[in-house]
Amino acid sequence: MESLFDLSLINSTLRMMAPLLLAGLGGAICARVGIFNVGLDGLMLMGAFLGIAANVLFENLILATLFAVIGTAIFSLILGYLIINLQANMIVVGIALNFLSIGITTFTLRTMFDVKGAYYDNEMAGLPVIHIPIIREIPIIGNIFSGQTPIVYLGILITILLFFFFRSTVLGSRYDAVGINLTAAKSQGIKVKAIQYQAIIISAVLCALGGVQLSLGQVTMFSENMTAGRGFIALVATMLGQSNPFGVFLSSGLFGFTEAISIRMQSMNIPTNFTLMLPYVITIVAMFIFKDKTQLNALKNNTGSTR
Amino acid sequence: MLLELTGITKKYGDFFANKKIDFSLEENEIHAIVGENGAGKTTLMRMLYGMETPTEGSISVRGIKHKINNPNEAIKLGIGMVHQHFMLFPSFTIAENIVFHHEPKKGILYNRKKAEEEVAILAKKYGMNIDPSQLISDAPVGVQQRVEILKVLYQGADIIILDEPTAVLTPLEVKDLLISLRNLSKQGKSIILITHKLNEVMQVTDRVTVLRDGQVTGSLKTKETDTGHLSKLMVGRELAKKEKTEVKVGASILSIEHLNIIENSSKKKLLEDINFQVKAGEIVGIAGVSGNGQSELIAAITGLLQVNEGSIHLADIDITNLSVRQIREAGLAHIPEDRYLWGSAKTASVEDNLMMTEYRKKAFQKNGILHTNVIRKFAKETINKFSIKTTSQEESAQNLSGGNLQKLIAAREIQQNTPFLLAAEPTRGVDIGAMEFIHEQLLMKRNNGDGVLLISSELSEILSIADRVLVMFEGKIVGEFTQADVSDEKISLLMAGGKHEQG
Lengths: 307, 503
Ligand SMILES: Nc1ncnc2c1ncn2[C@@H]1O[C@H](COP(=O)(O)OP(=O)(O)OP(=O)(O)O)[C@@H](O)[C@H]1O
Ligand SMILES: [Mg+2]
Prior knowledge:
The complex is a heterodimer of chains A (about 300) and B (about 500).
Chain A: H1 7-32, H2 40-58, H3 61-85, H4 90-113, E1 118-120, H5 133-137, H6 139-145, H7 150-168, H8 170-180, H9 182-187, H10 192-218, E2 221-223, H11 230-240, H12 245-266, H13 272-289, H14 293-299
Chain B: E1 3-12, E2 15-25, E3 30-35, H1 41-48, E4 56-61, E5 64-66, H2 71-76, E6 79-82, H3 94-99, E7 105-106, E8 109-110, H4 112-125, H5 141-154, E9 159-163, H6 171-186, E10 190-194, H7 198-204, E11 207-212, E12 215-221, H8 227-235, E13 252-262, E14 269-279, E15 282-287, H9 294-302, E16 309-314, E17 317-318, H10 324-329, E18 332-335, H11 339-343, H12 350-355, E19 365-366, E20 369-370, H13 372-385, H14 402-414, E21 420-424, H15 432-447, E22 451-455, H16 459-465, E23 468-473, E24 476-482, H17 488-495
Parallel strand pairs in B: 3-10, 3-11, 6-9, 9-10, 15-22, 15-23, 18-21, 21-22
Antiparallel strand pairs in B: 1-2, 1-4, 4-5, 7-8, 11-12, 13-14, 13-16, 16-17, 19-20, 23-24
Helix pairs in contact in B: 14-15
The structure holds adenosine-5'-triphosphate (ATP) and magnesium ion.
Adenosine-5'-triphosphate binds next to strand 2, helix 1 and helix 14 of chain B.
GO molecular function, one term (chain A): transmembrane transporter activity
InterPro entries (chain A): ABC_transp_permease
Pfam families (chain A): BPD_transp_2
């Protein structure tokens, strides 16, 4: 019988967590500028779909990823315009965006590929798996880190970059300032709207990468509503991680781990209903344990007064 | 002439917030703008700072006409503004707040070390005492105010606008600030000072401009005028000196016994063994530098903070740790400390804000259905009675001038007609006419045989209307005076942590 825990479990955790990590980082950036982005799921789904669709058209993985990223970024402008310019309620807009995304992707799937439910093509190439030459040779670390798609490595890299962005750069501190006190930032001549748009677009790019990892990395197919609420789990990862990049890394790691282990438990004759439940149960438990102030601030929808 | 505003008009819809205003500022001058709440002082300054565009009129700086479209352009012209409400980032350090938007950089990196050094040098140059690495949230209000001014100086402003900078300061902090302003003008800065306190105007300014209903009613040299004349220009009438009648003190209304509040994490005592009573027909004042436990006391009485030990009784009801609603129903009305945080819903209408603590009353609803006609009439009467300046009852509260919102909250709570009123900084930011009116209302409440607890960092306010004064320091009550033996010096000494001399 296969054992429940071994080193390759960590390897599959990394693979499972990557979409959550990327979307969670996107959520974190938005939270830092005072936007509670509930639309992560929809953005991820859009990215997953555009990735597959473009791969069919161009038969080129780099072009497909690029297409997904740009397309999703444009799609996210709807979110930006409604929240930033029209000051609409962030949660309502986010949820609407998620449904819109399900609608558009399902509709296009049916008209473009003439299939219902899921599209796959055995011939189609998925994202390649990279074996990093030197690391691969190191006994334990090799097992853990080697053999992932480029997007997984990118996720780790972006975590580190974002951490330094917020800690050490001027722009990062301005992002924070906008989230802490929008009116004050505005009164100092900061272009608040531009910063909030930037954050939303960056979050869309990250979500799109997460989506591509789902549809072209973990499998090579697109099925209707294939994110299955991962965007919401990513949102929880954002909150659990207190919108700090490393925090988001750890919390999405936790969720990736439960996902990986639930797959393994299925092969051990534990009822799938139970194992599929695991990530969501942990999410709810985690919500009880951790509270996050930055999210509350984002929710307050700053319309302060200078008077 | 350094700065010249000519024929400035600002309309909001049909309402003239400013009407054909002429204003000028000379080099090294301190020029005060005074006027009632809603007279248009802040609006005028917001146009100068590029946060609002004038409907008509022109602005020229050093003889050249400019259109100022946003704060950035104002800052480039050397104009800086300290807003009526603090514009700070609590989780940033003092240095980070001061250099914000003009940060010293190394490539794209934030050079925080250099920021702290530059801020330290700047603070020294202007004789302002601060610690650049301290977090703003840990700094007292007086220091926060200094940070606001240093921020403007760091941006290289020569024209500094201060919108009611002393409203939240203690007397000692005010004194420091006024000295700083004098120093600044000696070092070549020109200052526009908006304030409701005429004694400050007399102390530091060179000229005064008085606004009323959006128009200039006078522009004079400070030397050639006095407070009486100024208040007449502001209000349009002489202010009456209020007479206090003797009232027989009755039974105790609020009684607090051995109240202790301990902070959860640090186990620090926020309030320590507080004992006092407020009796019917009495105004009890609590004096003290803000941050010495007043906020916690307010929160404990109103049910916003868990009490660890001791009891609070309202009339005969034990209200210790009851819910806010239960406490209010037991007979408490409360004018909160911070009008935006606790006192109002910024985006709700004036009418809704007025009804916030009233709507459950029988007169205004039946089985949960509101009597909108009654409410509208009631709101209209209140607005008239307290002369709250607003364009309409549907206006959202955030568009009210600071003082008018304060009046709205005071009106709401005074009209509750409860046996007990907790008034925390009830006149913060309101003009002298309105202050007189609110004081009258508080006295009327006392004459009716109700109890009032007045918490104020404004010593003159406490001295003028309280019957009994308690002094708070570091979470304890360190002194008690009756009106007969109270004095400015005695209280100031205790407020600063001095010992109460028996004798
Ligand atoms: N955006 C707006 N829409 C409508 N009316 C407004 C708006 N902004 C300000 N007003 C009105 O303009 C008038 C002037 O307001 P302003 O804030 O300039 O007064 P102020 O003199 O600074 O008063 P205070 O001493 O209370 O701060 C007020 O009556 C206010 O209600
Ligand atoms: Mg004002």
